[in-house]
Amino acid sequence: MSFLNKQRRFLAIVLLILLLFTGVGGCWSSMELNTRAFVQSVLIDRTEDGQIQLYVGVPLPNRMVPGQAGGSGPQTAEPFTFVGKKAENISQALRLIQVDISRSLSFGQTRVIVVGRRMAEHGIDEIIEFVNRQPAFRLSANLYVTRNNVDEVMKIPLVFERFLSDILKRYVSTHVTLDTTVKDFKLAKYKGGDILTPLVVFGKASEISAENPKKNMWMGSGGAAIFSGGKMSDITLNRKELQGALWISSQMKSSIITVYSPTDGKEISCTTEGVSTSIKPIIKNGQISFKIKSKAKAHVLSSMSDIDFKDPEVILQVEKILDKDTERRLRLVIDKTRQARSDSFLMSQYLDWRYPKAWNSIKHRWKSYYATELPIEIDVSIRLNRTGGVYRSIKQETEKIR
């Protein structure tokens, strides 16, 4: 072996040893874990006098494992708390919170941000700016809006989950609401600040009061807020229209559509799955238009009609009814975003990516063009693959036997 090869081998061994040492070097910073408070949720709103109201939700380590070593809290104590302050801006409010707690706040595990009505109507640029300045803040953190006071969130009893952030994240993972993240807002802001954000609503739940009379509220998905220019519009999507927004954005996992039979007008309920939607800009004779094309599979969930699903012609008729009903739902969603002058589905980006010259010629008046002039075609194709174990309703079969 030559001297040069020996040197290379020696250097390779030294580098390998150094790499092994880096793996057992402990924490990457001098701050220990037991000196930190990991923020899981952020609640933020504006007061009537224009101040910022900020709450941070943090787990309580002394209550995380009750009844065991290191867990001194009682079994009924909640394993987290909210700390809140008012100030002129977010940074000042955060500083006041930090002064009151014994641990250093860390945003590395922040999963949800809930924005109150006043803050959403004023605009959330300040929130996005603050998040951008926090290196540890996750861009995948989900954003929610509520028309209530943001402190209503703290009255929610945790029955199925241990933390508030787990409940809100479940809404997204189970596809019952929109998956709108900090990253999505940043991208939308670059193109004008138009986006849809999930709404959370609150109400009284008397059946919970026996468990905790002070926390007899329930929380649920309440549709979607429409943002235009970074500010929340007065126009919102209700729960049914939210399903259409999920469909257009390809976030719909499954849904139930109830239509009326072409034979006797009675109800037929179908479950749809495998939803796939594309948004395509089209330029023809200098005219800009869009086509929203969606496909899905369906099977019959229940039927009160005497319709015979053995007949292929009947299946085609039901498919057309499903197509038309879904097209109507999607059209309602698009029309509402146009009323709010919000390009919520970022059609401008599709146009910019595919036809940059056309986009440059119209971008200065895109808002008004989208709201009043842009032709948008919606084409839905649902295929009824399964009709269930019976071809007619149980009621019809029973009457036939009698």
Automatic annotation (TrEMBL):
It is a lipid-anchor. It is found in: Membrane. GO terms for cellular component: membrane. InterPro entries: GerAC_N, Spore_GerAC-like, Spore_GerAC-like_C, Spore_GerAC_C_sf. One of its GO terms (biological process) is spore germination. PANTHER family: SPORE GERMINATION PROTEIN B3 (PTHR35789). This is Germination protein BC. It comes from Paenibacillus apis. The lineage of its organism: Bacteria, Bacillati, Bacillota, Bacilli, Bacillales.
